[in-house]
Amino acid sequence: MDCLFCKIIKGEIPSTKVYEDEYCYAFRDIAPQAKCHVVLVSKKHVKNIREAAALSAEERSAMMLAVGKIAEQEKLDDGFRIVSNCGKHGCQSVKCGCETSCCGLCTVFLDDVPVLSCSVLAVRAQDRRVTTLEGIREEARGLAEYIADQGADQCGFCNPGTIMNAVALFRENPDPSEEEVREYLAGNLCRCSGYEGQMRGIMNYITWRKANG
């Protein structure tokens, strides 16, 4: 099922109304001189939906341009999602492989919960903690070395997303079985290998963890 913003973008709901979710209000086509189709205004800047609807296009633009952390006015380009904002902030580990929420390459932690950053609006991350592989480098180092030891990295494009989800699994379950690992990582795709190298590396890492406390 499409989210509220997808329906606005596709024109499936009228463009003249104001819509909302937990974090913001959404408007469609309020600034004819701009090329953006959807404008987002944080609920921090208005008290209710009536106040948001009463704003003129100029007031909305001024309000959005005043936001410093994450842009609340985005054209329908890559900046609309978390994945591209990661690159803008120097987090090059976050890859975009499919743009359809199918490959797991773009996994990041949003408040310590793994999410697919290609499918999460940047505005939803405002005042929340986004963690990439760069942010858990020391925690992930041992696992990455065990995967590399099995020759499972090859091109390496899928490794960051795989490692992010493996770390999330270990935080939830420090001693998972091989079946549990396969189930948890089922959404992480790799075009180079048959996944057995990754599994050997992960299971060897688990064995090492148990032996070393």
* Domain module count: 2
Please tell me how large the radius of gyration is.
Answer: 20 Å
Biggest sheet strand order reads 1-2-3
Elements, N to C (H/E): HEEEHHHEEEHHHH
Strand content: 5-15%
Q: What helical percentage do the residues reach?
A: 25-40%
Measured between the Cα atoms of the first and last residue, the distance is 44 Å
Q: How many alpha or pi helices?
A: 8
Residue stretches low in confidence (pLDDT < 50, at least 5 long) are: 29-37, 64-78
Helix/strand/pairing class, anyone?
A: alpha+beta
Q: What fold name stands as the CATH topology of the largest domain?
A: DNA polymerase, domain 1
Largest sheet: 3 strands, antiparallel
The CATH H-level superfamily of the largest domain is: [2Fe-2S]-binding domain
Count of β-strands: 6
Write a structural description.
- This protein has 213 residues and is an alpha+beta fold.
- It has two domains: 4-65, no CATH class; 81-213, DNA polymerase, domain 1 (Orthogonal Bundle).
- It contains eight helices and six strands, in the order αβββαααβββαααα.
- It has helices spanning 4-10, 49-54, 57-65, 82-88, 137-149, 159-172, 178-184, 196-211, and strands at residues 19-20, 24-28, 38-42, 107-110, 113-116, 130-131.
- It has a three-stranded antiparallel beta sheet, with helices on both faces.
- Helix 5 packs across helix 6 (159-172) and helix 5 (137-149) packs across helix 8 (196-211).
- It starts with a helix and ends with a helix.
